[in-house]
Amino acid sequence: MNPKFIGLNTTLAAGSTLSALGHDPYMAYNFAVEIGGVVVGGFSEVSGLSSEINLESYEEGGLNNYVHKFPKHTTYPNLVLSRGLVNIDLFYTWYQATSQGWIQQLNGTILLLNDRQITVMWWMFKNAYPVKWEGPQLNASSDNIAVEKIELVHQGISKL
User: Fold this and answer.
1) Segments forming the whole domain that contains residue 129
2) pTM of whole model > 0.90?
3) Is residue 49, in this structure, part of any structural domain at all?
């Protein structure tokens, strides 16, 4: 048997044992974002932490009860970071520079924290740069916080 599969089976077995012990899941509101080696806090939302394996279908002649599906490559959606608008325009400046052809690719990490503010899990993304900036939705009849969004294209996410 392939040693990779033995390791996967061991990991799955350990995970089911830990689940049976009643460990509580982590809360989604407790996180930090690091880009280019600097923790840039104050984000209210991060989306796009996912990946998908694209498949190629192959219909084998004479075999009509199913279609073979083979993995081709993995794709990653853009990351979208949302935060309250502040005086420091780092993200807009980064976006503006990119829109003018000065592309600075940065690595980053999304850190999930526990209730004691200790990092328990993280997702690293590589070679990211902004492809969309969205300013706040302004409405005189609202008391909502002004929020800006920056959308980053990247070359993959790894979970550690």
Assistant:
1) 22-159
2) no
3) yes
